[in-house]
Design the sequence.
């Protein structure tokens, strides 16, 4: 499939929903599930986090999740189903994102725990995104 055809076949509503789901997964992942561990691994505390411009952080995060969902939708194609979408999302997260994060973390001397938290989010978010895109 060529790029023009892929772009024409985008289901914009599913891309928006997929982006929002990744955003929600991030809220759960870096909140109640691994928020404290993530802060400890990166030397952050509540005071540091309170200094952020949250509308800006959330807004840009949502835009970036939208771009990721859009590209994933173009990658998996209009004929995808739930299984293919979830598999494509998982393999994109595990095979591309997590492996490159691993390379970066090795050179940056980051901990394995920090890697697992961030790579785990990427794999989970992309798997959920792919699932959403696959069923629509």
Sequence:
């Amino acid at each position: 499939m060529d790029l023009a055809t892929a772009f024409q076949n985008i289901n914009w509503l599913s891309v928006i929903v997929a982006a929002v789901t990744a955003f929600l997964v991030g809220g759960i992942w870096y909140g109640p599930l691994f928020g404290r561990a993530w802060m400890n691994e990166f030397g952050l505390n509540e005071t540091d986090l309170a200094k952020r411009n949250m509308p800006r952080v959330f807004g840009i995060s949502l835009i970036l999740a939208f771009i990721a969902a859009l590209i994933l939708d173009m990658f998996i194609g209009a004929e995808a189903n739930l299984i293919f979408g979830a598999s494509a999302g998982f393999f994109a997260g595990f095979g591309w994102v997590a492996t490159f994060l691993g390379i970066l973390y090795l050179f940056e001397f980051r901990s394995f725990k920090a890697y697992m938290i961030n790579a785990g989010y990427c794999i989970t978010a992309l798997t959920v995104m792919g699932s959403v895109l696959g069923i629509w």
